[in-house]
Amino acid sequence: TSTTSTTPPTTSTETPTTISPDGSTNATVPPTPPIVGMDAFHLGHRHLESIGQVHRKGAHHTFDAWGYVATLRRIVKQGPEETVYVPRFDRSIEDSIAAAVPIDHSDRLVLTEGNYLLLDIPPWNQLRDLLSLTVYLDLEEEVRLDRLIKRHVEFGKTHEHAVRHVNESDQINAHLIAGSRHHADYVVPFE
Predict the structure, then answer these.
(1) In the chain, where do the E strands start and end?
(2) Distance (Å, rounded) from C-alpha 87 to C-alpha 26?
(3) Do the beta carbons of residue 131 and residue 6 sit within 8 Å?
(4) Can you give the pLDDT of all 191 residues of the chain as single tens digits?
(5) Is there a smaller number of Cβ atoms within 10 Å at the N or the C end of the chain?
């Protein structure tokens, strides 16, 4: 099983880009490879409320990063009879659903996507050794900000609250993420 990362520059997109780990164009890749989304490793919303961090949800410290690393390590090392079940994030409830995505040993390509896959701080810095290929999706800032605001509004925030969240949280995250782009195997312009 190859694990490939697709790293968007902010929380504005969850669209993975598929690139064969060995660079070949004739690799047999399932029509929809399983995706291990980093967002599924958000700390629970209630827990974030209890520690006063809901306003920073999406920042690197609001994830179970050790659990994410351990899950990817388990996928990379899984045996032929093992299925690894991973969580999936559901924006409609702002929380994760456990064991929602099965990853079988026979899956030739597994995608993972998230903002912090290239960070230099523990445990995020362990991910690069587990991934066959990393891609940083480079989105123009104006487009990214517009999409973030629209997404926040779509999921229930007022326009005013969405703008404030983007400026006070998402932008901080974006600057941190942009500082790690040099670790990517490829930097790809993204629209």
Answers:
(1) 2-7, 35-37, 83-90, 95-104, 109-113, 133-139, 186-190
(2) 30
(3) no
(4) 444 554 333 333 333 444 444 444 445 555 789 999 999 999 998 999 999 999 898 999 999 999 999 999 999 999 999 999 999 999 888 889 999 999 999 998 999 999 999 999 999 999 999 999 999 999 999 999 999 999 999 989 999 999 999 999 999 999 999 999 999 999 999 88
(5) C
Measured in degrees and rounded to the nearest 5, phi and psi for residue 179 equal -70, -10
Angle at 161 between CA 42 and CA 166, to 5 degrees: 60
Closest residue by Cα to residue 39 from 110, 78, 93: 93
Global pTM reads 0.81
Locus of tokens 């790809």: 188
Q: Are 103 and 166 in contact (CB under 8 A)?
A: no
